[in-house]
Amino acid sequence: RTLRITTIVQPPFAFENNGSYYGHKFYGFLPKLLEEMKLYLENSSSFCGNGGIKFNYVIHQVKDGTYGTKDEKDGKWNGMIGELINDEADMAVAPLTINTQRQEVVSFTTPYQYFGITVVMKKQTGDNSNKFSFLEPLHWLIWVYVFVAYISVTAILYVVGRFTPYEWHNPHPCNQDSSIVENQFTLLNTAWFSMGALMQQGSDITPYAFSTRIISGFWWFFTLIFVASYTANLAAFLTVTRMATPINTVKDLAQQNENDKMIKYGTVKTGSTKLFFKDSEDPLYKQMGENMDKNEADVYVKTFADGITKTMTEKYAFLAESSMLEYPLSKDCTLMPIGSPLNEKFYGFALQLNSPYTEMITTAILKLQEENVIDKWKKFAFDQRGFENGPIKDGENKKDDETSMKKSCAAIRKEASGDSDATSLTWDNIGGIFIILGGGMCLGILVAIIEFIWKARKNAEIDKKSLCAEMLLELAFVLKCKGTKSVSPNSPTIPKESSLDVDYVHSRPRLPSNSSNSYAYESPLTAGYMKPPNHNSLDYPPMYNGTRLMDSTV
After folding, report:
1. In a 3-state reduction of DSSP, which class is residue 424?
2. CA atoms of 350 and 361, how far apart (whole Å)
3. Parallel/antiparallel/unpaired status of strands 530-531 and 549-550
4. 3-state secondary structure of 446
5. C-alpha span between 362 and 421 (Å, rounded)
6. d(CA 238, CA 236)
7. With pLDDT > 70 as the criterion, what percentage of the chain qualifies?
8. Given its phi and psi angles, is residue 245 left (phi above 0), alpha (psi -120 to 50 degrees) or beta?
9. Res 524: pLDDT
């Protein structure tokens, strides 16, 4: 006997073929499962001995285009269930939900697919015209931390630059007898140096002391990682369109205030989803069913395709089985699911009540599930959208290369919902560079103290003073906010009218040398740099060997 099978055109479960596909007018996920069941039953020894059972069928589309619901007035069934009851079909092969009301009038096979009720809406994009969106790649606390780090590095570099003796230099290298020394790390210069590094532009200031170079190096490392992280995350933020919707769960949908901005919601008028909300004992779902009945003309649709169209064109949320929504969600990335699926249910094949074929079809479905045949074709139909380009033949696994190369809608929705990597960087992401910077500044301060003590010790030997006295003298100068600009008026090498418009300049009284025509000028930071000449040697020009300043006989 040839089985009469009723179905409904619902991609990717079933497509209508313009020509003839193996003698059938339909192709897709469910027609392919029928072929697999036919192949199994014809080659199985479990039925009719070793020869199997002949399994022939012909598919037609349900006349009224519905799944089947019971009319409360006359008790009659419509759709595919009605055709089974009226002996117009032997089996219904469709995304047909198994429920107790239908099981009273037809027989169902074991489920071939599981699903829940899902809400789908059209994606609403937020306003991306924020003029300060360039700040979004970093959490606001990170911006505060960066500002604090900039201020801290500037202050510490300024203090260390004054503290270490190796940052004080003679501004007039051609005049080796000058008593003037200056420091390039003024407060403004230090702030400019730190800002130039942070902006990856540099400056004309170069640290000389080992301590200031350590701090500068760690600051440069900090800015390198910081700028690289910011730039990478900024690119992600500028290419992601974020989803903006006030509805995140079914509860949000049900508890909306009635106003012009209210999002209407509904489902297929003759489907099992409507029965779920109508017969539910959950107060929330029951309330939703009552609201849909109250606005019946505006929220109910005749077919699944009408529901998707209404969702795309109106301010409307469509409630349907999650398995049926998988295909339109994978095809149209502007659709988005809301919340988690409700009320787990099952799809099965329906046959006439007490049909002798029920056990046979159930066995075939179980066998195909064990061998992952159903899962293989489900992935091909829903994930790869393999039936979009028409029917396929046995052994053929046709796939649209362009479709396979496209970014999946699931990945796009993940980015749009803010669940992607395009999130603001926080302390947990880049806090390590702040810790490294703090360690570098501590190391630089330690080295500056060592440099200070080492130079003070050498100067103490030259000045014939105690180490403590020399350290106190130099420390007193370092702690001044502004160095003195005074010079000796009797200095033959520096005119009285010289204008020294330089901060952090220091001089000490001119000290007579052993020769009446030779002078040596000292400062606490340059003591030992200047020595009287050797009178027994020939005259020589002023020299600066990078370590000491030497004067010559006048």
Report:
1. coil
2. 10
3. parallel
4. helix
5. 45
6. 6
7. 73
8. beta
9. 44
φ/ψ of 196, rounded to 5, equals -60, -40
Q: Using a pLDDT cut of 90, give the percent of the chain over it.
A: 13
DSSP 112-161: SEEEEEEEEEE--B-----TTGGGTTB-HHHHHHHHHHHHHHHHHHHHHH
Measured CA distances, 456 to 86, 157, 470 (Å): 110, 20, 6
The pLDDT of residue 351 is 93
Say if residue 317's pLDDT is above 80: yes
Judged against a pLDDT cut of 80, whether residue 535 lies above it is answered with no
CA distances from 553 to 160, 171, 500 (A): 36, 21, 26
Matching residue, tokens 């209210």:
262
**97 is written with which tokens?**
């939900």
Residue of 493, 459, 484 lying closest to 178 (CA atoms): 493
> For residue 526, is pLDDT > 50?
no
Give the CA-trace dihedral at 447, 448, 450, 451, to 10 degrees: 120
Structure tokens that stand for 296 in this block: 């019946």
Confidence (pLDDT) at 54: 77
Q: What is the pLDDT of residues 371-388, one digit of tens each?
A: 888 888 888 887 777 777
Average pLDDT of the segment spanning 393-409: 47
What's the Cα-to-Cα distance from 436 to each of 215, 217, 409, 427, 430, rounded to whole Å? 11, 11, 41, 13, 11
At 469, is the secondary structure helix, strand, or coil? helix
In whole angstroms, what separates CA 456 from the centre of its chain?
54
How sure is the predictor about 412, in pLDDT bands with cuts at 50, 70 and 90? low
Please, which residues bridge with residue 106 across strands? 352
**Residue 508: count of CB within 10 angstroms of its CB:** 18
- Residue 455: C-alpha distances to residues 176, 500, 524 (Å): 20, 26, 10
Type of residue at 59: I
SS3 category, 507:
coil
Do the Cβ atoms of 224 and 218 come closer than 8 Å? no
Distance, in Å, from the CA atom of 143 to the CA atom of 418, rounded to the nearest integer, reads 21
552, two tokens: 């010559």
Strand (E) or helix (H) holding 273: helix 272-279
